Amino acid sequence: MATVLDKTDYVVADIELAAFGRKEIEIAETEMPGLMSLREEFGAAQPLKGARI
């Protein structure tokens, strides 16, 4: 199998889990309205851009 290299700084361990991850995010969005308010308020500013967590 060929390896595709590009300029990303992350590795996806198992792309088949992407749909499950998206579903988990959607659940969190409905169960955490405070988090969504923060995303709405600060999302455009991206205050954590470049932060390594």
Automatic annotation (TrEMBL):
Keywords assigned: Hydrolase
Entry GO terms, CC: cytosol
A GO MF label: adenosylhomocysteinase activity
Organism domain of life: Bacteria
GO BP terms, alphabetized: S-adenosylmethionine cycle
Known EC number: 3.3.1.1
Record bears the keyword Protein biosynthesis: no
InterPro entries: Adenosylhomocyst_ase-like_sf, Adenosylhomocysteinase-like
Keyword Hydrolase set for record: yes
Catalytic class of the enzyme: hydrolase
Name the UniProt record assigns to this protein: Adenosylhomocysteinase
Organism: Sphingomonas gei
Lineage start: Bacteria, Pseudomonadati, Pseudomonadota, Alphaproteobacteria, Sphingomonadales
